[in-house]
Design brief:
Elements (H helix, E strand, L loop, with lengths): L1 E10 L2 E12 L2 E7 L21 H18 L13 E5 L5 H10 L9 E6 L7 E3 L3 H6 L2 H7 E2 L2 E3 H8 L2 E4 L2 H6 L10 H9 L3 E3 L25 H16 L8 E6 L8 H12 L10 E7 L3 H13 L4 E5 L3 H10 L2 E4 L9 H7 L3 E5 L2 H6 L13 E3 L4 H17 L1 H13 L4 H17 L27 H11 L13
Parallel strand pairs: 4-5, 5-9, 9-10, 11-12, 11-14, 12-13, 14-15, 15-16
Antiparallel strand pairs: 1-2, 2-3, 6-8, 7-8
Length: 494
């Protein structure tokens, strides 16, 4: 890393010095921010005991301001400063102050007037809420900005970003619909819906890294492709069974789960039907199944997995922990992959599993709907199985159908494997969608908050608080903001 510059930013009434470090690699410039508050012994957001760092609001305010100052001052690779015309991609609440500062700190001072900011929501359940903060003092913003970021008695960084961003993107098209509802909006649905009504909202399914490829994967027993998956998966199944201590049985349906052991992931419902799945009731399906569940999380779920493993030795593996190599081996060796999440903005494991020819069983929610084609479409098109409602009876029904298809209709099951392995979830496809969205964002007028709006229009006929396309209104805005810019379309967005 190379030291390139230092900047001063104001947080909570104090001037803070941040240092910038630079690395150029693969045609991309990486800039790192140094400040004592950023360096922690534990994780990025939480200490090793799982508790959030008490200075997180300070840390992410500092990071947002440092990011906004960087294009204005950094000279990289011997060139001049990058300048004001750029696109900020702010990911989640940790960067939620970037849109707010752009609206209330920079644009009012005729800075970044041609720049835009896209706010990306990965999970609206996490919003960056901090109670009893004196927003005007802490962030150095006017009262109107404090109202934008306030919700109840807390500041809400996600809300501020939703209001002020030029465009909002979620991590799947279906999740974009869900976050506009009371059930999926976590009390921010009205702000998301407002962005949708303004045609400034979209959903782009995440991509997967190209390391998830059974043709080149060094973590699996035998590499394979869509042409020879039957042989490859048979070898990997036996190897996986040995690795996790299950009986080596080619005829058993091997079902896998990898994820956090939490309520959101539906672990409680999986555990509730586990004994039923293991019991041979003479139907040729239940009792002919093996299950691997791997993950970290809540103690009661971890204990339940260990208990199930004890009751069904050689047939159930309750792997409390996480091993990335074993995850790859599960994708290659399992017949079915279970993902019964209560909500899932995007999800990646269901994409990995399809690439490896392991058919996913997923709840019909979020990105799982966008990435898995249900068996109801027919085996010539389907790539997996949807659980319409997550409850014990429905989960039993769908798992039974999937296992029965594997055991009793192998030709149809293989058709679905071919369909799944033919899907393309790699990043280039998602990158194309992001480029389209960025192009649209840059061509659209910027979000202008009420700092720019005159209280009354000179024409005498406009109603304050409404969006206007009046020449007199536009002239007043230009007189406040300076020279006319492409982003000044005489809008007031309040």
């Amino acid at each position: 890393l190379t030291y390139v510059a230092e900047a001063k930013v104001m947080v909570s009434g104090r001037e803070e010095a941040v240092k910038y470090w630079h690395k150029h690699e693969g045609g991309c410039d990486y800039v790192f921010v140094e400040h004592p508050s950023i360096e922690k012994d534990g994780g990025l957001y939480n200490s090793d005991d799982g508790r959030e760092y008490p200075d997180n609001l300070f840390r992410f305010t500092l990071l947002s301001l440092a990011a906004l100052e960087a294009p204005l001052i950094l000279k990289l690779n011997g060139k001049e400063v990058y300048g004001q015309k750029c696109l900020f991609l702010a990911n989640d609440w940790q960067a939620g102050l970037v849109p707010l500062y752009l609206c209330y700190k920079y644009r009012p001072n005729n800075c970044y007037v041609e720049s835009r900011v896209v706010y990306v929501v990965h999970n609206l359940g996490y919003q960056g809420q901090y109670p009893h903060i004196k927003a005007c003092h802490f962030f150095g913003i006017p009262e109107l900005a404090a109202a934008d970021i306030g919700l109840g008695d807390s500041v809400n960084l996600c809300k501020g970003a939703l209001v002020c961003a030029d465009r909002v993107i979620t991590v799947s098209p279906n999740y974009t619909k869900e976050v506009q509802t009371a059930a999926g909006g976590f009390k921010l649905e009205s702000f998301v819906k407002a962005k949708g009504d303004a045609l400034r909202l979209g959903g782009i399914l995440n991509g997967i890294d190209d390391c998830w490829n059974p043709e080149i994967d060094k973590n699996i027993e035998k590499r394979y492709s869509i042409e020879n998956f039957e042989t490859g998966k048979r070898f990997n199944k036996a190897a996986l069974q040995k690795t996790v201590g299950l009986q080596v049985d080619e005829r058993a349906v091997l079902v896998g789960f990898v994820g956090r052991l939490t309520w959101q992931k539906g672990v409680d419902v999986m555990v509730a039907i586990l004994d039923w799945l293991m019991k041979d009731e003479g139907n040729g399906v239940t009792g002919h199944v093996q299950l691997i569940m791997m993950g970290n999380g809540e103690k009661q779920h971890a204990d339940a997995l260990k208990g199930a493993e004890g009751r069904h030795p050689g047939r159930v593996c309750g792997y409390v922990g996480f091993d990335p190599k074993v995850e790859h081996q599960m994708m290659a060796g399992c017949d079915l992959f279970l993902m019964p999440s209560r909500y899932e903005p995007c999800g990646l494991p269901q994409m990995y599993s399809q690439r490896y020819g392991t058919l996913p069983i997923v709840t019909a929610t979020g990105g799982l709907v966008d990435s898995v084609k249900d068996v109801a479409l027919g085996c010539d098109k389907a790539t997996g199985f949807h659980i319409s409602v997550l409850e014990e009876g429905k989960l039993k029904e769908v798992i039974y159908r999937a296992c029965a298809l594997c055991l009793q209709a192998p030709a149809d099951f293989k058709k679905m494997i071919v369909n799944a392995m033919s899907e393309d979830f790699y990043w280039p496809q998602a990158m194309d969608e992001y480029e389209k969205s960025i192009d649209q964002t840059v061509s659209d007028p910027a979000i202008i908050r009420s700092w720019l709006a005159p209280r009354a229009c000179a024409c005498g006929g406009c109603v304050p608080g409404a969006a206007k396309r009046c020449p007199a209104w536009a002239a007043q805005i230009r007189s406040i903001a300076g020279p006319a810019r492409s982003w000044l379309h005489a809008y007031e967005v309040c």
